[in-house]
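TICKET: design request
STATUS: open
ATTACHED STRUCTURE:
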């Protein structure tokens, strides 16, 4: 990986030297199928780049990661590939004012989801291809200048196996010779070019608005077609286009709009203009909750927002990644709430997305939203909770600060002023100052150029009659920021906890008095950041915390309730609330949670509380309480409801006793029934999983389940369950498959890691802690960055939660100061998670003393 890196300084120097007029990319993908396809690892890629020298100097380089280069021609002059190509770059000397470069190479098919990924469907043997490039993997498919500010138009031509269809960013058709030729694109960056090829199932529709007509397409593998609800995908797509055209005043600029759901995808989705790619897990093979459909809608709208934020107007370098990702993340929830059936999407945002941000912002690797991105490895790791969820949270705060109309008018001017160009932070801020009349530089300094999360705590005093004499908000954090926040007062009435007073205030400095609430009757709950206007950790006064312990489920407003769940979880993670207390609140009130997405988050948090944050001596009891509570709620849930399904999955994930396992086995073989519970194939795998983990389902039983579901999804489940069995030989085999071999695809690496790491098998996997630290530097050097990230994060011995593991981590960091910064960052983050767990366990342990 180090030889494939590109620094920001190198990119800036190259951008100062040249500009690109256009690309012609010719790919021959016929080697993807046929009798020799498994042996053939490469395809032919021929690229013609026309570019001009606009600065001083006559030397540069073009990016290409390929097994071999057949020929390189610069301005008609042949260059020796053995001399100019080093495996990642082609050196170019003697540049003219106008240049034509032709590179003929053999590029590699990928099994890691980077570059040109090749997938063979186990169900029918069909082969499918797609590309994924962000931040810098287009160079694995064709020679290019791999940086976002060297935009250019592209013409793609692809020769594919007979019977295949090929798609790219522009509209395409097959000519008389069988070559698929595509319309020239608008000027775009390398990382959002795209090719999808294969016998995909393809559905069409169209979006019309006045004189504008956008052809719509949606596709998936043929074997998934029976599950593909393309009508709902098109519905959300059209609702999104309506919203963006109403509010952006800039018509969608990229012609057609195809959406491909592809296998073994590393990301949620990718915003390639005209050819958006999604992970195919968004095609649901069994019954799922509305939270799953809401999540898919959010992703569809997130990627659509990128057509303007990111594709039309692109950041100069990855420092300003937030200029696209934060805006798209914000717009996903914003449009979902205002234009689709998912009107409570801000509840999901507050409870789910911001949880990701809070965690990321407390890691040692936390960074400002506008980050210091030195190179491509930095860029890869900064697709994180800060860039996405914190950035979106701050934009929500900006809308409250500057006003909705000013924010949207700023977006409109931004698109028109910088269409097809590249921007930096200052470009957007200057426009927002125009539209809002606010000092955006001061706002940006506090919110975009500093790191860390503030906590806001109410302090209330009362008079003899119980009325508020003063309500102040204390702000803590390394950087005290201006917050536009609401403070809500709640009281118990008729068995409900309802808001009776609310005000918005500018919270500044260490202590802010909210004068508007003086004189109000004494509340049972004071909720700082009511309505979730700002980005902060909410704290409570003692009376409010006592109210939540006893009455959280009685809060009638779903957003307020979600905020309280999130705040209690932050207290638990911070070691301020014992894990067993969080579990008690969850078991008391999760059954009354009406928002299914919030319930699913509470389930995840509760399992983490027992697994990571509870004192080791209490884990077994805590796990038993979770299973008992899960089964109790499963039995009383409305038959056939999504709550019943959610509790069924929770019970399966927490099952630990003989009676639990017998019920799971009965549900699988049909001897046990729960009224209304449809045990479809996806739920069958969920029910079988704990049986494998606890040694009650052997390899033959798991293979038997695969015979019922011999699909790509089934294969991933089988791989995970095989690695999850409680056997030293099983763990040794799984470790070897992931660490000592590179034969598994990215999806099966992920599945194997998920099976290997089981909380109930701490002792069994303990010997691998030492092996982990011995292997990771070599592995990072040898594997692609995506696989490196998956393995280094996934196999960190965090379940060996003791001071010895912390010391071993510190020793590795001390002895490997010269290791790649991105690798050290991953280890530092995992170390921080471990240290946090130990602090929380100490807090929980004090309860028993």
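STATUS: resolved
RESOLUTION: sequence designed for all positions
ATTACHED SEQUENCE:
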């Amino acid at each position: 990986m180090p030889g494939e890196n590109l620094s920001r300084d190198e990119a800036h120097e190259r951008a100062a030297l040249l500009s690109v007029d256009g690309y012609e990319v010719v790919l021959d993908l016929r080697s993807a199928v046929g009798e020799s396809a498994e042996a053939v690892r490469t395809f032919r890629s021929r690229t013609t780049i026309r570019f001009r020298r606009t600065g001083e100097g006559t030397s540069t380089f073009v990016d290409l990661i390929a097994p071999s280069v057949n020929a390189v021609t610069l301005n008609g002059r042949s260059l020796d590939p053995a001399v100019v190509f080093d495996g990642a770059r082609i050196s170019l000397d003697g540049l003219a004012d106008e240049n034509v470069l032709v590179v003929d190479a053999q590029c590699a098919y990928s099994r890691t989801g980077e570059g040109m990924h090749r997938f063979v469907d186990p169900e029918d043997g069909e082969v499918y291809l797609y590309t994924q490039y962000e931040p810098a993997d287009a160079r694995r498919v064709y020679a290019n200048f791999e940086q976002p500010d060297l935009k250019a138009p592209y013409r793609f031509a692809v020769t594919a196996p007979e019977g295949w269809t090929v798609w790219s960013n522009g509209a395409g058709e097959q000519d008389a010779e069988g070559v698929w030729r595509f319309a020239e694109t608008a000027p775009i960056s390398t990382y959002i070019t795209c090719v999808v090829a294969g016998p995909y199932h393809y559905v069409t529709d169209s979006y019309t608005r006045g004189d504008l007509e956008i052809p719509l397409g949606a596709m998936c593998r043929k074997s998934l077609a029976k599950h593909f609800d393309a009508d709902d995908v098109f519905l959300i797509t059209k609702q999104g286009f309506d919203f963006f055209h109403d509010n952006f005043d800039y018509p969608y600029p990229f012609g057609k709009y195809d959406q491909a759901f592809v296998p073994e995808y590393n990301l949620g989705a990718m915003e390639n203009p005209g050819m958006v790619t999604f992970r195919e897990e968004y095609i649901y093979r069994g019954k799922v909750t509305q939270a799953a459909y809401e999540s898919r809608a959010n992703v569809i709208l997130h990627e659509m927002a990128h057509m303007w934020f990111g594709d039309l107007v692109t950041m100069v370098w990855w420092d300003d990644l937030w200029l696209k990702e934060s805006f798209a993340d914000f717009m996903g929830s914003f449009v979902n709430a205002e234009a689709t059936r998912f009107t409570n999407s801000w509840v999901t945002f507050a409870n789910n997305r911001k949880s990701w941000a809070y965690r990321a912002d407390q890691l040692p690797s936390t960074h400002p939203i506008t980050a210091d991105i030195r190179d491509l490895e930095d860029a890869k790791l900064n697709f994180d909770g800060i860039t996405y969820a914190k950035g979106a949270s701050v934009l929500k705060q900006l809308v409250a600060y500057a006003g909705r109309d000013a924010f949207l008018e700023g977006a409109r001017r931004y698109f028109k002023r910088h269409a097809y160009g590249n921007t930096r932070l200052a470009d957007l801020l200057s426009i927002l100052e125009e539209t809002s009349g606010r000092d955006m530089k001061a706002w940006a300094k506090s919110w975009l150029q500093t790191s860390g999360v503030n906590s806001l705590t109410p302090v209330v005093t009362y008079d003899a009659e119980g009325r508020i004499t003063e309500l102040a908000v204390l702000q803590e954090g390394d950087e005290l920021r201006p917050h536009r926040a609401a403070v809500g007062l709640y009281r118990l009435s008729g068995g409900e906890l309802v808001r009776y007073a609310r005000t918005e205030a500018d919270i500044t400095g260490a202590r802010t008095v909210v004068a508007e609430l003086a004189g109000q009757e004494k509340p049972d709950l004071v909720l700082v950041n009511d309505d979730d206007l700002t980005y902060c950790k909410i704290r409570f006064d003692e009376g409010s915390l006592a109210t939540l312990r006893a009455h959280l489920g009685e809060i009638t407003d779903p957003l307020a309730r979600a905020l309280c769940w999130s705040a209690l979880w932050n207290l638990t993670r911070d070691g301020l609330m014992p894990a067993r207390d969080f579990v008690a609140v969850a078991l008391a009130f999760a059954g009354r949670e009406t928002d299914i997405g919030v319930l699913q988050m509470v389930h995840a948090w509760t399992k983490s509380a027992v697994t990571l944050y509870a004192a080791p001596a209490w884990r077994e009891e805590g796990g038993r309480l979770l299973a008992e509570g899960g089964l109790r709620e499963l039995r009383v849930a409305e038959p056939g409801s999504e709550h019943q399904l959610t509790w069924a999955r929770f019970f399966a994930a927490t099952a630990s006793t003989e009676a639990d396992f017998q019920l799971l086995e009965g549900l699988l073989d049909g001897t046990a029934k729960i009224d209304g519970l449809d045990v479809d194939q996806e739920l069958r795998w969920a029910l079988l999983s704990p049986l494998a983990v606890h040694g009650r389902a052997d390899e033959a039983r798991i293979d038997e389940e695969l015979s019922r579901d011999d699909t790509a999804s089934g294969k991933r489940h089988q791989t995970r369950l095989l690695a999850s069995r409680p056997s030293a030989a099983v763990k040794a085999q799984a470790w070897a498959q992931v660490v000592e071999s590179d034969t598994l695809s990215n999806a099966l690496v992920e599945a194997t890691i998920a099976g290997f790491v089981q909380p109930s098998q701490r002792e069994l996997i303990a010997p691998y802690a030492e092996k982990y630290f011995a292997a990771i530097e070599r592995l990072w050097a040898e594997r692609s960055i995506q696989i490196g990230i998956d393995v280094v994060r996934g196999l960190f011995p965090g379940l060996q939660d003791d001071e010895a593991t912390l010391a071993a981590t510190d020793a590795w960091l001390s002895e490997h100061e010269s290791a790649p910064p991105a690798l050290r960052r991953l280890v530092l983050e995992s170390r921080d998670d471990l240290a946090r767990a130990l602090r929380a366990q100490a807090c929980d342990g004090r309860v028993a003393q």
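CLOSING REMARK: The two ends are 50 Å apart (CA to CA). DSSP finds 28 helices and 28 strands in the chain.
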